[in-house]
Write a structure and sequence with these properties.
By secondary structure, this protein is mostly helical. It contains 10 helices and 2 strands. The protein is globular.
Length: 271
């Protein structure tokens, strides 16, 4: 575990030096601010989405709405920027062989990269939630919100629901990051991996929108981005949350195992 943690810290240091990292995290900061600014210049409200009608009643609604809009392609793209690059960049820079000769097992290196990619994803999601809440509260105040069931929720409880929602929202993003790691390991091409990961995420969304897919829709990865809605119902509907937990685990474990097997068998002599 000490070796894995050492690799993990090294991977985080490398992420801090990459433009992709700041591009993704910068977008996570700017998008909620832009959303609040756009609302300030509009009279209407996004009434056809969860909590949209009460967007101007309390600033706590803002981060929830940003999460809804960013699930289509925004956060999958932010996730793909690092997950699709974290292994492929080593091939393009010719540094993987150097890493593997520093008394590091391949499994330790791969585990460190997984943890780094997941940490970046977690940071992006919670940045969106935090900045969205701050920007929303600054504009519309720290007031109670009304749940999807019509129940009035105190502002303090609303913050707790936001934190829980962000945690559930991370589940499908971790699965997308796992798929990005697979492409990054298998293709050795950062651009192809980033684009391929985004296309995978968009395909999951598209399948859920197609007519005739109703029987499989609850089991598609894109649908799991809606699981956090259950926290905004009274009482909490745990079925979608539990389903998201085990489904996203399957969506994530399969590509991670495949990526690990490719990584183990990879010939780095020519890297």
């Amino acid at each position: 575990m000490t070796a894995v943690f050492s690799v993990y810290k090294w991977e985080l240091l490398k992420l801090r030096a990459q433009k992709r990292t700041y591009l993704g995290l910068g977008a996570a900061i700017l998008v909620p601010c832009a959303f609040v600014i756009a609302l300030a210049f509009q009279n209407g409200a996004p009434n056809n989405i969860p909590l949209g009608r009460s967007v101007r009643e309390t600033g706590l609604v803002t981060p929830f709405l940003v999460l809804f809009f960013m699930s289509i392609w925004g956060l999958p793209l932010i996730t793909a920027l690092v997950a699709g690059d974290i292994v492929a960049a080593e091939h393009q820079n010719g540094t993987l062989k150097t890493i593997l000769t520093r008394s590091r097992e391949r499994g330790e290196v791969f585990a460190g990269k997984i943890l780094a990619a997941f940490t970046y994803t977690l940071a992006a999601v919670f940045l969106i939630g935090f900045v969205g809440a701050v920007a929303g509260v600054a504009k519309y105040g720290f007031k109670p919100l009304v749940s999807l069931s019509g129940t009035r929720i105190s502002a303090g409880a609303g913050v707790g629901l936001l934190a829980a929602s962000l945690g559930v929202y991370l589940l499908p993003l971790f699965a997308i990051a796992a798929f990005g790691l697979l492409l990054s390991t298998a293709t050795r091409n950062s651009a192809a991996s980033v684009v391929g990961t985004l296309m995978f995420a968009l395909l999951m969304q598209l399948l859920g929108a197609l007519p005739g897919t109703e029987p499989i829709r609850p089991y598609l990865l894109g649908t799991q981005f809606e699981a956090w809605h259950s926290f905004l119902r009274t009482p909490t509907d745990w079925a979608p949350i539990v389903r998201a937990a085990w489904l996203c685990s399957l969506y994530g474990i399969v590509p991670l195992v495949a990526a690990y097997l490719v990584f183990l068998r990879r010939d780095v002599a020519g890297d």
